[in-house]
């Protein structure tokens, strides 16, 4: 008798509070955005971060520290300001990897639990992920300017040196901006596709 009464109460509850059906459009958009974020992180890890025509070298994440040591070991010019810029660059890249991990984790939680709050938080994080490679562009260009200033005493020997030939952003930064930009846009669009209510049933 109690089971029958409980069953009737449950039916009344579900009649008043109809279930919601998952938005598959939002699910697919979130999944694609998550993959793009992972691709951006992989590109920043594997592809060249910047190139130096003057040193005839392309530098990826693994070669970053060795590149800094090469410049620090030479005694011809003072590159302390340039090394500070590279340290700032490395810190931003590490933050980028952390935010990508947070973004991917939130995306997985969104795919599983499908909560609007998770979508909003993930969109905010995705904006931070997008902002970092854009900032890296300015850091790399500023570092190139610092290095060009340090090389001014040697211009009589090597001639005029353009900052872009000393240091220029490469594939990893460009790819990260493209991938994270598209991902942030997809996360934004997914916010407009909410769960739909299923017709009331007894």
Automatic annotation (TrEMBL):
TM ranges: 24-45, 89-113, 120-140, 176-193
Keywords from the named record: Membrane, Transmembrane, Transmembrane helix
Protein name according to UniProt: Membrane protein
Organism: Staphylococcus muscae
Lineage: Bacteria, Bacillati, Bacillota, Bacilli, Bacillales
